[in-house]
């Protein structure tokens, strides 16, 4: 049976999204047909608004509504305490944890030569400019490297660290890396040796 073209179009568009295969796309499209018409119109208008309004913060490259995101604009946060993350979803996760009082800097990915992602594709030069500007004041800066503990995340963290260290205009900066270790609910007995090694290295006073 040939599907109506409007339905085929929705299925085709949905199946381009990450994590949605052709079967799920079909199911979602049929679900939309059964939904109240207004709900479907609201969904499509919300997506259209997102497409026209979504932008990146000019200072930290987090998702923003205005030129600067709400975190950069928040005067209660310490701008000299900069957490470097891979993407905006990391900011959301870290904000949910609720204990960080500094600001973020979103790199926009990690260095991954196999996938053709090199340092120029990331916001590393912008990070150097930002730290350079912060260095004009004598107060200390802390950069927390919070890229994922994957091979690419580690490579990127090392690269950023080296860039900061080599930059003549960036001074009085302490570079730290988020601790890696056992996730909540994990069993020491079943943890892999690398995780245990890192958990031990990242231990704190109790
Ligand atoms: Zn921002």
Automatic annotation (TrEMBL):
Signal peptide per UniProt: none
Domain Toprim: 80-183
CDD domains in the cross-refs: TOPRIM_recR
Zinc finger boundaries on the chain: C4-type: 57-72
GO terms for biological process, alphabetical: DNA recombination; DNA repair
InterPro entries named in the record: DNA_Rcmb_RecR, Rcmb_RecR, Rcmb_RecR_Znf, TOPRIM_dom, TOPRIM_RecR
Entry annotated with the keyword Ligase: no
GO MF annotations, alphabetized: DNA binding; zinc ion binding
Keywords, alphabetical: DNA damage, DNA recombination, DNA repair, Metal-binding, Zinc, Zinc-finger
Source domain of life: Bacteria
PROSITE patterns: RECR, TOPRIM
Functional description taken from the UniProt entry: May play a role in DNA repair. It seems to be involved in an RecBC-independent recombinational process of DNA repair. It may act with RecF and RecO.
Family: Belongs to the RecR family.
Protein name: Recombination protein RecR
Native organism taxonomy: Bacteria, Katanobacteria
């Amino acid at each position: 049976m040939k599907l109506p073209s409007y339905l085929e179009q929705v299925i085709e568009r949905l199946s381009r999204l990450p994590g949605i295969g052709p079967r799920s796309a079909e199911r979602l499209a049929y679900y939309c047909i059964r939904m109240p018409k207004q709900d479907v119109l609201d969904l499509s208008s919300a997506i259209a608004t997102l497409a026209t309004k979504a932008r990146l913060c000019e200072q930290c490259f987090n998702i923003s509504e205005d030129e600067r995101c709400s975190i950069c604009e928040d005067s209660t946060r310490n701008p000299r305490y900069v957490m470097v993350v891979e993407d905006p979803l990391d900011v959301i996760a870290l904000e949910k944890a609720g204990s960080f009082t500094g600001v973020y800097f979103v790199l926009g990915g990690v260095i991954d030569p196999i996938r053709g992602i090199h340092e120029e594709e990331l916001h590393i030069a912008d990070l150097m400019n930002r730290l350079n500007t912060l260095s004009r004041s004598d107060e200390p800066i802390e950069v927390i490297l919070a890229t994922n503990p994957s091979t690419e995340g580690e490579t990127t963290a090392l690269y950023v660290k080296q860039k900061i260290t080599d930059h003549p205009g960036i001074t009085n900066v302490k570079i730290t890396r988020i601790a890696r270790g056992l996730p909540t609910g994990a069993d020491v007995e079943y943890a892999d040796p690398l995780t245990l090694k890192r958990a031990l290295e990242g231990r704190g006073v109790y």
